[in-house]
Each structure stands twice: as C-alpha cells, then as structure tokens.
Amino acid sequence: MREVYQSPETENAAERGKSPKKKRILWALLLVPAVLLAAFLIYCIPYYHTHHAPDFPADGTVRIREEKNYYFYDGPGEDSALIFYPGAKVEERSYEDLMVQIAEGGTDCFLVKMPLHIAFFGKNRANAILSSYDYSTWYMGGHSLGGSVAAIYTKAHEDAIDGLFLCASFSTADLSDDPALSVLSVYGSADRVLEHDKYEASRKNYLAGAFTEYVIDGGNHAGFAWYGPQKGDGKASISQAEQITKTAEIFSSWKEAAGSRTE
Known about the structure:
- By secondary structure, the chain is of the alpha/beta class.
- 36% of the residues lie in helices and 17% in strands.
C-alpha cells in the first residue's frame, strides 16, 4: 500500500485552517448567553419609582416596620392579614397608601419586596411571613403581574390561604376546586394595560359563588399605587387617591361579606 507523506508544515497549516472555525463557534456560544443576559438586564433594571403621594386620610393607628423582604403595616386588627405582591417593575412603597388604608380597616398588611421588582423571582417570599406570624385568616393579593403570581402561590398553598385579592389582574391557575377560597377582582374602567381577553378567559378558574368583581368607574391600571402614569394605560377620570381609597373600601366590604358567608 502506498503511503502519502505529509510534512509537519502541512499538518500545522491544516490545524491553523481549523482553528478560526473553532474560534467562531466558541465566540458564538459565548455571545448568545451574553446577548440574552444584556436583554434581560435592559428589561429589568428600569422600573417605576414611587412618586410623592399627597397627604391622604390616616388616623395614625398603623405602625410601619421594614424587614429584609417586606414592609409590615400593623393596624388595629389582630385576626386577619394580607400578603401583597406589587406589579412588575414597580417600586414596592408605591402601594403604601393602599396598604395603610387596608390596615386601618382591620387587616394587617405585608407588602413584599421582589428581586428586580418582578414577583416571579420572589413568588415564595410569602412562606416566611406565613410561618412567622399567627393570624386566623390569611389573604393573598397583588397588582397586575403580582396578582397573577399571588394566585399561583395561592393554588400551591390552598390550605393556608382564605382569600385572593386581585387588582387589575387575573389567575392563570385553576382555583375552582377550592370551595373555601373567596376571590375579589378589582379593576378600573379605563384600564388599557390589563389583557381583557385573558381576563375573561380566566373566569373559569374561579368558583362562581366565591368570585366577586368590581369595576371602578374612571379608574385605570396605574391608579392602585403612586408610581405615575404607565405606558399604554388609559386616562383616568378620577384621581389616584380616589381609586386607592375606593379599593380599600371594596376590600373591607368584601372581607366582611366573605366572613359572614362562613359563619
């Protein structure tokens, strides 16, 4: 058999020919995750900051305490508490007005801090609160994406949660198999951010007799908190202060009605 002699120089040239191709593949493998990470950070880092809220009626009975992963609004009530997940990319304390007014009405509130201000990244942060405090009645709640994540959490902890409070939000989890769970949905008539087709489709996820819906006339998506106007939202014909106060009143009335049904 005839052998073909290949000089060392020829072998090195062949290897050099392969090397750029390998480098291009390696750079491509490194570039894809780098681009994805950059896109992720570009989306997550900007967020809606808390705007200074005008003075709102407060009776001074609510004490506010900051913990590592949440703010605690301790009002005159002793039996019930609400764990609230903020909307995506919204600074948590934008919801302080709503939390204070709900706490004044007799339901202590825990406003949860979220990694990168996105509830999906901290969906189980309610665990530590549930295990650290002793209330006879627990409510989960949230605004927009925060409400949807709160619903997912509720589904996974049906034995611990008595009610779900959704602000401009809906549940993607099927909650219709829990007859003891009451659900309150509140949104504004001028909301243009809420995906209304998905909202309507989500109705099958609630037990009909335990679902309460309230549409605030003139309210919009951003009106539940003090973070300014939201891109794509409708123009509200009522003030944020009015929408927040109305929401707190609706929550208190719903809580009282839900309690009377279980007595």
